[in-house]
Structures are given as structure tokens and as C-alpha cells.
Amino acid sequence: MSISLTPNTGYGSLDAAIADALSTQNTITLLTNQTASGYMAPDYAGLGAGAQSALDLTGQIGVNSALSANLNDAGAQMNVAQTALTSIQSILTNITEALTLAQSSGTPIAAVAAEAQTALQQVVAALDTQYGSIYVFAGQDSSNPPIPNPAQITQSAFYAAVQNATGGLAVNGAAAVTTQVLAAASPGATSPYSATIEASNAPASVSLGGSTTLQLGILADQNSDAVSTGVPATSTGSYMRDILAGLASISTLNAGDQTAVGFNTFLATLGTSLTNAASAMGTDVAALGSRQNVVTNTQNELSDVNTALKSQLSNVQDVDLSQVATQLSEAQTQLQASYQVISSLSTLSLAKFLPI
Q1: Burial class of residue 4, CB neighbours in 10 A (0-12, 13-18, 19+)
Q2: pLDDT, tens digit, for every residue of 203-238?
Q3: Domains of the chain, with CATH numbers?
Q4: Cα separations (Å) of 5 from 18, 19, 29, 342, 345?
Q5: What is the pTM for the complete model shown?
Q6: Residue 17 vs residues 1, 335, 337, 342, 345: alpha-carbon distances, Å
Q7: DSSP string over 271-317
């Protein structure tokens, strides 16, 4: 039998049965939707008093997720920078050992110079290291390489100025040449760095939440936490500039320079400069490692907070699917019973109650 549920038939019992069936149908529709979606309601309005809590929790989860994504990128950039810095440290170790050997055993300077030129090219390439499209040592000027045309460093104005300075070693002496070399690496016309970095630059930063920020990395041309020693006699004040100056200087020396009166003094000065630069860089590398730990710890904290917030949000908007399944089954059983009642009531007539 097909039953059309239409209330207000004029028969009290039948109207009540139909109303009960309609209510049960609505309940089944709600429970079916909850089973399909997993949510108590299709929108916030359906959550009633819990709507504002759901909105607040969703918003905070979104903020934390965005912060975590930014920190994930920041951590990846720091890892790339650390790898590049480790490479530079290894290069410095090798060249200082070669320089020490040249001073102690009289190794031909041409062999050390060739090694230094390769080292220079490797260092400038490392300073142009990228994470995606970001130059990790460029600070806020992250879309531009700190060293323009690194493959052409030996054809740059910087290299020419260093070569010109070391060419006068026999005449001018070690102290004067050291001053000239450091000047070539310092900010100015012969600087090996890009014009945008020389003009204005600052370290990039990442938000830790609220108004708290953290320095993201190390600049290619400036110290971060380290303080360079030997300024101005053996240092520009920037260990990276000192490294470039030292490597360029060694790479321009030749056999003829070994007879110059100030040759050994100049080599010793370069050795001191590079050793001090390596030490200063070690300080900044350690500081970068500490900042990496801050990023990792903050990510862990955000993850823990979001887990708690999602649990709270689930309590507000999610349904217990096993419980809903039980309620749905009970409602369907109830609806079938309502149909039977309605069917029975709809077949009743006055004749059935009159005496024969």
C-alpha cells in the first residue's frame, strides 16, 4: 500500500501518527546526512550554540597551519644554507693546510694558487646557493644572487683589483698589499657582491607567531652573530669578504712573488686572516644551528596545539558514526512501525464499531 503522509486529516489519531512519521523521516534524513559527511550539520548555523566555538577553533587551526608551513620552508632554507656553509668550511680547511705547507716546506706557490682559484670559484658558487627560487644567503633581496656571474669571478673588477695589488708585493710590501686587497673586497666599486646587496640588505626572517620573528639565515656579505677580529689590519669586518679576499690573493700569486722580501709575511697574514674568518664563520654556523632548533621546536609546539584544537573541534562538529548508525537503524524501525499504524488507522470505518 502507498501511504501519502498528509497531516490535518480531521482525525486526531491519524494526524498524530502522520506527524510522528514525518518527524521520524526528518530524523532519518538528518542521520543519513551525518553518516555521509561525518558532521553534525552541513553548516555552522546547524551547530547551534557550538557554532562560535567551531568558527574560533577553525580560524586558529588555519593560522597555526600557515605558520607551520612557513616554518617548514624556513627550516628547509636553513638546511640548504648549512650544507653550503659546511662545504665552504671544508674548502677553507683544505686551502689553509695547503698554505701552511707552502710556508713550511717551500711547495711551489703555483700549485697552491691553482687550488685557491678553484676554491674561490667554489665558494662564490656556494654563496649563490638556492632553495627553489630563493637565494639563501641574499637576505631580504632573496630573488637576486649575492655574487653576480660567479663563474666569471676571475674576470671581475674585484679579482682584477686583487691581482693588481698582489702584483706590487715586491715593491709595496705585505702590509700595503694586504690593505689594498681588503679594500678590493670591501663595499665599493670593486666589491664582488651585487649592487642591491651593497646598497641595502638585511637578513630575512620568519614569524614564530604573533609579533615574534626569527632571523632566517646568514648574509653572504655580513656577519650575523660573529665578530671578526683583526680589523682593519687583516679583516674587512666580514669573514665572507675576508675569505674571498684571501682566496683571490693566493690564486694570483706566482713563482716570481716567492722571491719578494714580503712574500712569507704576506702568506702568514693571509693564513691568519683565513683562520680568523673560519673561526668567525663557525660562530655564525653554530648560531644558525640554534635558530634551526627554535624552528623545529616551534613546529612541534604548533603541531601539538593543533592536535588539541582539532580534538576540540571534532567534539563540537563531528558525529560518532557508530552511535549515528545505531540511531539510524532505530529510526528506520520506528518509521516502519509508524507506517503500520497509519495503514491500520486509515482502514477503520464507523461500520466496524456499530453493533449488528
Answers
A1: exposed
A2: 999 999 989 999 988 999 999 999 999 999 999 999
A3: 61-310 (1.20.1330.10)
A4: 6, 8, 16, 9, 13
A5: 0.79
A6: 16, 10, 10, 6, 9
A7: HHHHHHHHHHHHHHHHHHHHHHHHHHHHHHHHHHHHHHHHHHHHHHH
